Amino acid sequence: MAASSAAAPPMSSVPDAYGRFGRFGGRYVPETLSAALDQLERAYAEAVADPAFAAELDGLLSAFVGRPTPLLFAKRLTKLAGGAQIWFKREDLSHTGAHKINNTLGQGLLAMRMGKRRIIAETGAGQHGVATATACARFGLDCVVYMGSEDVRRQAPNVRNMRFMGAEVRPVETGSRTLRDAINEAMRDWMGSVETTHYIIGSVVGPHPFPRIVRDFQSVIGRETIEMSRKQFGRLPDAVVACVGGGSNAAGMFYPFVDHPEVRLVGVEAGGRSGQPGDHAASLSYGSPGILHGSLSYVLQDQDGQTADVHSVSAGLDYPGVGPEHSYWHDMGRVEYTSVTDLEALDAFDTVARNEGILPALETAHALAWTAREAAKRSPDEIIVVCLSGRGDKDAAEIARLRGLTADGAKA
Amino acid sequence: MSTTTPARPIDALEAIFAANRAAGTKALAPFVTAGDPDVETSVAVLEAIAKAGASFCELGVPYSDPIADGPVIQASYTRALGKGISLEGMFGIAREASARVKMPILAMASYSLIFRRGIDRFVADAVAAGLAGFVVPDLPLEESDDLDAACRTAGLALVRLVTPTTPPDRAEAIAKKSTGFLYCVSVAGVTGARIELPAGLIDRVKWLRTKTDVPIVVGFGISDPDQVRAVAAVADGVIVGSALVRRIAEATGQPREAMLADVSRYVADLAAACR
Predict the structure, then answer these.
(1) Nearest residue on chain B to A190, judged by CA atoms?
(2) Which residue of A has its CA nearest to B70?
(3) Tens digits of per-residue pLDDT, B113-151?
(4) Which parts of chain A have pLDDT scores under 50?
(5) Can you list the domains of chain B with their CATH numbers?
(6) Global pTM?
(7) Mapping DSSP to helix (H, G, I), strand (E, B) and coil, where does residue B117 land?
(8) DSSP secondary structure string for all residues of B118-140
């Protein structure tokens, strides 16, 4: 064989030492936070090298979270779609009802390794806030959660649950009063508390090393899916689908698959009311490279670089940016990103509720809407796995409100 | 053949520190948000503070998501953006003010805005507007090579920041790269007036002084003449931001002349504390 150049590094070999996923990622933060991010990077490297860390986290994921979560055949939804087999990876069965807990337990353990006893977090849908409050209660850490006041209204059950577990929920009144503003406020808190406080960011966003750490903690989803697919199907699925706001469940699901080019990966963003600016939150579908919350990624922004207002019926997808690794996968063509409207997601919520006996989160309903549509076009030999990232109890009241139903779900 | 070097935008800034050193005085640098309450008033405020004795100033460029800023400056950015201030508008304010007064003006701009416009274009626009340089609060050392190179070529200052959480060896590395001056952030936290100077600040400035020859200017949390005097005793200059932005905001509804007179008095008192 002729002396050839080395094979291209695998798609999974990111980020580099500067937190770069191709051209994306990095660390664009005030100097005040630099030392804490360096400390976090060191603590994470040490934890990864320490078998006791993995053992402790695995023990919690098993007995506290209930992992592994099952891979369920969605029999009636498959029949209804009339094509490919649809399977659900049941993250909704995780303790606290979503995948978010995988990350908060991991980061909670890291915080304790760094000797930090106060935790802050942002939350949109409230799932990350609940998962953070849960980890803090379990570990005996102080917990403050920043949440946009619009989201406090939309996701009241989660706010109540956070408070039950001893967390302080601070409503954020600035800007659009949603997830983006909650991240701003959490960052500002961290600017003044960084020496004693760890910020558990809830998605694969933010400055290096957060996107990598959150992806790694969430990758248990994809690893289990690979293992179960081999056991249950004798092969990998043909396609894997997840919803994308910041993109943590999608990153955790996709990452173990990116080096398996035969598996089609599809991320579904929030198409909102329309493709017009301000009407959606589909950063990869409509955005451009920019810097938001400490990393370079696709951002919905105006000509000057001011962050655009966004909309989604789903509080967890209502975010003008996306994790830098998704931008990388997008530019490399490894993952397809598409979007689904509010109405399509609401329809999918109904369909899955009535045909599968599962109330999916509105975030997840975006992935389900695309999957049902796509399955119809595919052969019954094909297998599509959807990351059923969370349960929809938190959305029930808001859905009733949107439809003009009474609080008990009856027609008004 | 001429051997004179053409003037660089940073020259006027460096000349101020040189003159201060010779005279034993210190620099006072107010911070003003571009376009708050409106473009025309911003120009008038810059003119007023220059006449009141400001040595140079920071022009805050409104950004939608300023994570290093406390409530006062955030609110000023929100107001200015609500009035439709754009980057063109900000450069226009700088251009207009620098035509009227000699006071060097530095843009305090998020790297999000610089990246979006493109470094080369942003730098060219800054030079054309008469700006002396930039303070970029969310651009750490590791990410700054491209902007650094462009600023050096254009002769613009790229002021770096050190904070109480910066480890000593890193602070030295940052100081080495800083041009114009080194911005010593007084507290770990966001911008905003504070009642007392942070413990350890004076010692930190003294330590920095042993590590670098670049002028050291202290900002964040400083709002009254006593604080300015205490800091100016050890540093080369003092930045006052939120307290001034608040005064301008509270004057909304008053005649502009009254607001300008109030701002001038305030800046003159602070400037006197630097002499």
Answers:
(1) B189
(2) A188
(3) 999 999 999 999 999 999 999 999 999 999 999 999 999
(4) 1-4
(5) 25-159+222-273 (3.20.20.70)
(6) 0.97
(7) helix
(8) -HHHHHHHHHHTT--EEE-TT--
